[in-house]
Amino acid sequence: MTSLSVKKIIDQMGECVTFSFPPKRIISLVPSQTELLYDLSLHTEVVGITKFCIHPQLWHSSKTLIGGTKNFNFKVIDDLQPDLIIGNKEENYKEGIDILKRKYPVWMSDIVTLNDALTMIRSIGDITNCTTQADVIIDQIKTSFSGLQVTKPAKVIYLIWKKPWMAAGNETFINALLEKIGFSNALKEQTRYPTLLEEEIKLLKPDYIFLSSEPYPFKEKHIEELKSISPSSQVIPVDGEMFSWYGSRLIKAPNYFNELLNSIRMKNSMA
């Protein structure tokens, strides 16, 4: 039996978190980090996740759901009595996190670059007593990215929302991965998630417009609408999880990116 001790660690937002180590009752507030905890084999330790933590399906159907990433059910969380809560600066809401911090240890990630993601994985490995497993995942991610193909220079808009159109700009993890693949973000001069008018999309004249599979459910009618707005652009639905999930799913991302690039090349060669 592992004896408990008190541990202090600085999270990715520079806050000192004091908690019982190793934690035995963990709540995860972020889908990609929930999947990471699963891949670290913390099947018993994780007691609560959000309704958006769809991977793995086994956990989504069996773990206690504590609400959404930006709408916590505090009573359910209190009933679970966590000894560690794991969240993220962007995906969770400050007001809710501040309330949780008054009662529980809350470790927060802040992810903008691939290196940030690798640091997060190692840190979560450290705080959950799974350092060796975390290092294996990190090595697998690095190996996977070593086989990443790079596209010829091309300008892209990565859309995540409609009404209004909203895209990923600079200082986002999506932007970091677009650049890693070789794309030039048409909105790299704008930070976070700017909104766009149809006229702005038309003036930007991107080579590609990517429609993320999350969080907005883009349909075929949106593809046609964007083709009419920017006829010179190729409008392509993409897997949002591969571009925005920064946990162990990153192992699979480069293979998906390579398939995406090959599909684009094939389509261009036939044009």
Q: Taking all residues together, what is the mean pLDDT?
A: 96
Q: How many runs of DSSP E, i.e. beta strands?
A: 15
User: How large, in whole angstroms, is the Cα Rg?
Assistant: 20 Å
Question: What structural category characterises the helix and strand content?
Answer: alpha/beta
Main sheet summary: 6 strands, mixed
Helix content: 40-55%
CATH class of the largest domain equals Alpha Beta
CATH topology of the largest domain: Rossmann fold
**N/C terminus separation:** 64 Å
Structure in a nutshell:
Helices cover 40% and strands 21% of the residues. By secondary structure, the protein is α/β, with parallel strands linked by helices.
Keywords:
alpha/beta; five-stranded parallel sheet; 271 residues; 11 helices; Rossmann fold; six-stranded mixed sheet; globular; 2 domains
Structural description of this entry:
The chain has 271 residues and is an alpha/beta fold. It has two domains: 5-144, Nitrogenase molybdenum iron protein domain (Rossmann fold); 155-270, Rossmann fold. Helix content is 40%, strand content 21%. The protein is built from eleven helices and 15 strands. The protein has helices at residues 31-39, 57-62, 74-80, 94-101, 114-127, 131-146, 173-181, 198-204, 220-229, 240-244, 253-270, and strands at residues 5-10, 16-21, 26-28, 46-49, 64-65, 67-68, 71-72, 84-88, 106-109, 155-161, 165-167, 184-185, 195-196, 208-212, 234-238. Strands 10, 11, 12, 13, 14 and 15 form a six-stranded mixed beta sheet that branches. A five-stranded parallel beta sheet has the order 5-4-3-8-9, with helices on both faces. Strands 1-2 form a two-stranded antiparallel ribbon.
